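Subject: Interface between my chains keeps coming out wrong

I've been trying for a while to get a sensible model of this assembly. When I model each chain on its own everything looks fine, but I need the whole thing in one frame so I can look at the contacts. Pasting all components below, labels as-is. Any help appreciated, I'm running out of ideas.
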Amino acid sequence: MKKLVTAVLMLAVVIGLSACGNKADNTTAPAGPNAEAIVKTKCATCHGQNLEGVIGPKLNDIGARLTKDDIAKVIKDGKTGNIGVMPPGSLTKQDEIDAVAEYLAAKK
Ligand code: HEC
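Reply #2:
Try treating it as a single job with all components included. I did that and got this:
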């Protein structure tokens, strides 16, 4: 009987440790949408994988010219100007728009 109790206790410790391991993995995952990944999939065709500009202007220093709100507005409404046409609605989820606008506003 004592052996069984010991075995159960050992098992509980092992399960407890592995549960902690999983928890640690979860907490290292980034919170919210991954802005960099979104930009690479949704914006890079026109603005470049490194924001260096393609048919759209470079965005690697966009934070020096536009605020987070300005950028969010361009993403939502699109923009037609001297360079060309950026279609509206490349992002539709508000949390993604916010995350991308914040990420780009930090590029100065
Ligand atoms: C189909 C091509 C295309 C896609 C896709 C695109 N853009 Fe654009 N974007 C443009 C063009 C062209 C302009 C320039 C419009 C003009 O003439 O002022 C522009 C302008 C901008 C500007 C304003 C730059 C400035 O200097 O005023 C921002 C900010 C921007 N885009 C962000 C984004 C983000 C973020 C995404 C992805 C969610 C994205 N764009 C996707 C083509 C695109």
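Reply #3:
Confirming on my end. The mean pLDDT is 85.
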